């Protein structure tokens, strides 16, 4: 399940990045070649960049290449005994707590911003702000198997 979510997230982030490149290229060409200067491409590129960055954070977390998270986790796991694994578990759980707060507060912000529309495209700003709770949920889903695996390994090896 996590690998499917990770694959979908990676594909969507790649599509958004490709669309950003095309939109910016068209906008620059429109402005400097044709002299028209339409305004909606800049706003759409900005909105997609927010989504792309949040989706990419989920991807690197799922692939275990998020440097700031896995550097400390790997350092803890390399230590002998259960103390290192316990510290790694604490890091994962603390990250899930932070993501859960982002999920709740991001949902509140998304709901609050639904009546506000963007200046040029006139779409609800909740489209942009929904990236926070959705990607927080994706990251929690990615982290839960890691937490369960580490906790199982920690508590099955014997008593404290």
Q: What features would you highlight for this structure?
A:
mainly alpha; 160 residues; elongated
Describe, in plain words, how this protein is organized in 3D:
The structure is a single chain. This protein has helices at residues 2-34, 40-62, 67-78, 82-112, 126-129, 131-156. It has one domain (2-156). The chain starts with a helix and ends with a helix. Helices cover 81% and strands 0% of the residues. The mean pLDDT is 90. The chain has six helices and no strands.
Concise synopsis of the structure shown:
Helix content is 81%, strand content 0%.
- Got a strand count? 0
- Estimate the helix proportion, in percent: over 70%
What's the end-to-end separation, in Å?
Answer: 33 Å
Task: Provide the number of structural domains.
Answer: 1
Give the topology string: H per helix, E per strand.
HHHHHH
**Radius of gyration (Å):** 20 Å
Give the low-pLDDT segments: none
Task: Classify the secondary structure makeup into a structural class.
Answer: mainly alpha
Alpha plus pi helix count: 6
The average pLDDT value, as a whole number, equals 90
Strand content: under 5%
> What shape does the CA trace take?
elongated
**Biggest sheet details:** none
Outline the secondary-structure elements.
Elements: H1 2-34, H2 40-62, H3 67-78, H4 82-112, H5 126-129, H6 131-156
Helix pairs in contact: 1-2, 2-6, 3-4, 4-6
């Amino acid at each position: 399940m996590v690998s499917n979510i990770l694959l979908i997230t990676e594909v969507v982030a790649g599509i958004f990045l490709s669309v950003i490149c095309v939109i910016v290229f068209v906008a620059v060409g429109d402005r400097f070649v044709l002299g028209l200067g339409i305004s909606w491409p800049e706003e759409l590129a900005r909105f997609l960049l927010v989504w792309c960055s949040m989706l990419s954070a989920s991807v690197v977390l799922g692939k275990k290449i998020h440097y700031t998270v896995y550097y400390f986790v790997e350092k803890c796991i390399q230590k002998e005994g259960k103390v290192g694994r316990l510290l790694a578990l604490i890091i994962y759980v603390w990250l899930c707590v932070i993501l859960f707060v982002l999920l709740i507060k991001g949902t509140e912000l998304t709901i609050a911003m639904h009546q506000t529309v963007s200046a040029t495209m006139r779409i609800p700003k909740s489209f942009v702000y929904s990236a926070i709770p959705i990607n927080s949920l994706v990251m929690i889903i990615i982290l839960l198997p890691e937490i369960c695996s580490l906790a199982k390994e920690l508590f099955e090896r014997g008593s404290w």
